Amino acid sequence: MKSLSIKAKLLAIVISSIVIVSMIILVQSNIALYNTSGDVTDKFEKDAYHSKEAELKSYVEIAIKTVEAFYKRAQNDPENTESYKKAALDAIESIRYGKDGYYWINDSHPNMVMHAIKPALNGKDLSKVKDPNGVYLFVEMAKITQGNPKGGLVEYVWPKPGFEKPQPKFSYVMKFEPWDWVIGTGAYVDNISTSINKMKNATEEEIFSTMITNIVIIFIIMIILAFIMLLIAKKSIFDPLENFQNGLLNFFKYLNKEQSNVDMLDDSSKDEIGTMSKEVNQNIQKTQSLIEQDAALIEDVKRVVEEVKAGHLDKKISKTTQNEALKELQIIFNEMLEIMESNVHNDINEVNKVLSSFKNRDFRTNIQNPKGEVAKTLNELSEIINKMLLDNLTNGSTMNENAEMLRSNVEKLSVSSNQQAASLEETAAALEEITGTITNTSGNIAQMATYTQELTGSVKTGQNLASETTSSMEEINEQTELIADAITVIDQIAFQTNILSLNAAVEAATAGEAGKGFAVVAAEVRNLASRSAEAAKEIKTIVENATEKANNGKAISQKMIEGYDGIYAKVQETESLINDITTASKEQTTGIAQINDAVAQLDKATQENANVANNTSDIANQTSQMAMNIVNEANKSEFLNKTSVKTTSHSHTTEVNYSTQKVAPKKVEKKEPVQTRVIQAEKSNDDEWETF
Question: Binning pLDDT at 50, 70 and 90, where does residue 689 land?
């Protein structure tokens, strides 16, 4: 719709409205026809079924009345009741109505009592009989007549001759209570459905024909109305719109400078288009005035722009206009020029002149009487650059001198490092010799410690033997004392024996001849007593001598024990000293090892110092080169007070090689370690004592 013209949109709206209204009328009429047709068909269908039900009911009532007549006869003749029942059954069985109407009778069980056209069913149980839809029709017949004297209608489907599928069927039943008979008759109602379908088809065809007729009529009316409305719209809407459109197009061409003048629109009509035309004419007049003012303003802007291009920022736009946008633009443009003048300078050419001199590395020029911030900043920047270049030149010269001094000190550091490395190698050789001597000494001390331990064992053995000797001497002394006591007893016995022998000799002499033999015995006994006494004296003398010797041996043993104690104490002191020497030797060995490690670390640090000296030399060379570059770069620029700085110019940088030179260390003669003489223990077989 957006791509369509207003004329096309109006036509579309008008035609669409007519079509929509026509379609609504057509649909409503068709719906009304369909509803009316449906109501008529439904009413006809209900009436047809109700008529069929009433017809069947009347047939059943005829049968009931026939049975009632036989029942009344049976009441008058009870003995022949069965005969009357049979007569009633025969009468009902023989009744026919219409083309194929008949009756049947079943009881409330239900069991078939009589079937007019299928006698084979008589007496059969009908409770299991059902139609294809599952309706137990005879059970329903028994239920519907239970307590209902008027009976009722049962609907079901049943096979019909000449049709493949079962057809709908109505059966009306009424119960004759005295004999428990359910009397019924039925009729197929498929013919009613066929009639209704034919009626519906005929109605639909008639409705369709009527709908086509209505469509044609409505279409013709719609075309006539559309034509009339188009004529009216053309005169009242389309032509004024076309005139309005042409006037606007001419106005836009004037605005776009495609034509120099513009025509006013026709605003004679009193409708909305006339009102819009009047508004457009007023705007055309205003626009013409604004365009002329805008043109004058634009020319003034061009003039100011040319002045600005020439570098003069102190010019302003003097023309004005009623166009608010351009007026605001004029104000903004003048404010921008004022801001540019205050921020930059009133004459950009002076700024460009200073920047050009900066480009040529001449920083001596500046702007006289600066008015803008940029001009003032350029002057300040010139001062800063002059000071920076002067500082760079001064610092570069100073850095170059310091680099030369650094190279000299690095050379001294390298020589000192090499001398220190040589001294460390001499120290390492001396420490190696000391380490060997201490190692030999440690071995001898360890051997002395072994001998001292053996000597300690021998001293302990001597102490034990001396103690045992003392104990033996004491035991000998005790035994000699016992012998002395025994000798005293023997001496006393000899003395008593001698007295007895004297008494015996006296008695023998008194006895005369009879006592001579006894006298001889007494004499011998006295001799033995004398000899025993003498022997006892000799033994006593020997025992006394032995006791004296034993006491002397005991004293000597005690002195030996005291001597051994002194020797043991000295040996213990010697062993303690040896242990102290061993510990000190180990500590010296550990200390020497630590000194060796420290010397190795010092040697490594010395080598690193030499490498650092080399690296420092490289850095010094690079620093010197950088200083020369700074000085050269500063000399390329022109700035204030440049000639006041004295610089030393070097054509090249001297490369000093500070490679680590190994100074030959002094040869340290290694002396053989002094062999410590070991005192060997001498063994003697004299009394199995060891002497040293």
Answer: very low
